[in-house]
Every structure is written in C-alpha cells, then in structure tokens.
Structure prediction request, 289 residues.
Amino acid sequence: MKKVFLLFLLLPAVYANAQKTLQERLGYAKDAKLLILHADDLGMSHSENAATFYGMEHGSVNSASIMMPTPWIAEAVNYQHNHREADFGLHLTLTSEWNYLKWGSVASSSNVPGLLNKNGFFFSSVDSVYKSATDAEVEKELRAQIEKAKRLGIDITHLDSHMGTLFGRTDYLKVLIKLAREYKLPVLLCKPIFKLGFQVDLDSLTTDKDVTIDMIYMAYPQDYKNGMENVYTGILRSLKSGVSEIIFHAGYNDSEMQAATIGHPDYGAEWRQADFDFFSSDKCKALLK
Prediction:
C-alpha cells in the first residue's frame, strides 16, 4: 500500500514537471525569452574561425559548432583550449558542398563507402547522401566525429546537423538521437521547423526527456535580398516567449572566403560578412538589451 501511495504522490509531480515549459525547466519565468545566437561552420576556414571568435569575444555570438572533417579544426581546438568557457557543439557533417574546398570522412573510408563519391569526398548535396549512405554508415561516421572531438579536448555542448542532412530521413535522425542520449548531449531539435520542412515525425522519436527548443530562425536567399540587418532586426523584435535560436555564418569577405565559396553566392563570402557585421554590431547589442 505504501508503494502504491508513493506512486500516487510521484505521478502528479512527474506530470507537473513534464508540463513545464523549457524556460521554466531551466529556472526562468514562464514568459522568459531565451535566445541562442549560434554561428555554424567553425573549422571550414581561417576566415570563418577568426570572424566567429571575434563575434564571441566582442559581439553577441554566444554559441558555435565545429565541423570535424574540415581543414581548420586545429585552430578551433586551440581556441577551445585557451577559452574553456566557449560554447562549442559539433556541426555533424556528411556533405562537402563547395566547388573546390572539399573534405571526406573522419571514419576510415573503407567503413563508410556509401558516404563518399568517386573522388573520396563527401557528396555535395543532401539528396546524394540519401541515395547512397546507409544508417549504419552514418552512425559510424558520426561516432568517429564525436570521438575525435573528445580526443582533441573539445568540451562538446550540443550536436546539430550540417545542411540538415540528419533531419530529413527517419533512420538518420534515429541515429542522431541515439548518439545524443548515449553521450548525454542535447540535439538541436525544433518541432515547428520539422513540421514545416521535414517529412519526419519528430514526436514519435522523442520523449519528454529530450530537449526540443521552441523556434529556430535562419536567413534564406530571399531574406538576404532584403538585407541582413532588416531580417535579423525583425526577428529580434518579434521574439516570443520560449527558447529560440538564430543560426548564421560569421565570416570575412576576404580572398580566402571568396575562393572557398566561389560559385556559391548563397551563404558565400558577402553573405557571411553581412552576418558577421550584424552580430558584432552595437545595434544588435542594443536590440538584445
């Protein structure tokens, strides 16, 4: 009888906790507006790294994620060693989208052949990955990236997905959530975005113990034409209660970034400079305040 009574007492408490908003579970008021300002693609280039580091130290950037297969991760690792407070997650990477800046797998190529093209690089497009790679190969590669980050001393704070590759197939997303639970790391998951952009039933794959944030914002090509300052100002002024994240790409419009992104005006050198300019600006700080 004692056990039954204890269970009766515990169930309402568990239910009440499950009904709390994420901001309440984090210790904030129900109407609190919490915002993650997140820079993607660390490790892609020195320009990307330098702009992101500046934004974290002098601007409003408070989170970033590292692409483990990319050529400039050593610089990101060194920054982490000297700035232990830096919030670095892993931008888990299965694509290599640029024309001449290419990378391949962290896992042995013989273990993940379906992830690689005839030249030994990751495919440029997400669709090509979906046509070629099994979920078993995806798990091997993701695990290799996480383990490499740990070996290099990165204090991994979260996991997300480069180009959303892991969000568009149910079997891939299952792998991501499985690894997140295994390594006890939150994943960037947002139910409204999944309902709009992915043919995956996120509700069937998650439980109340999995963290899902309330909204993700990101500029798209049509937004870029309207000016980044206008786009991001509009987002900040219209934020609702809850936990939101703005994803962007901080970089300098220099010769390195121009060469890396040649032929890709979308998310290219000028775009990344515009992202950097806004999130390092006094105007952004004033809006946040």
Q: What stands out?
A: The first helix runs from residue 2 to 19. The first strand starts at residue 33 and ends at 42. The radius of gyration is 20 Å.
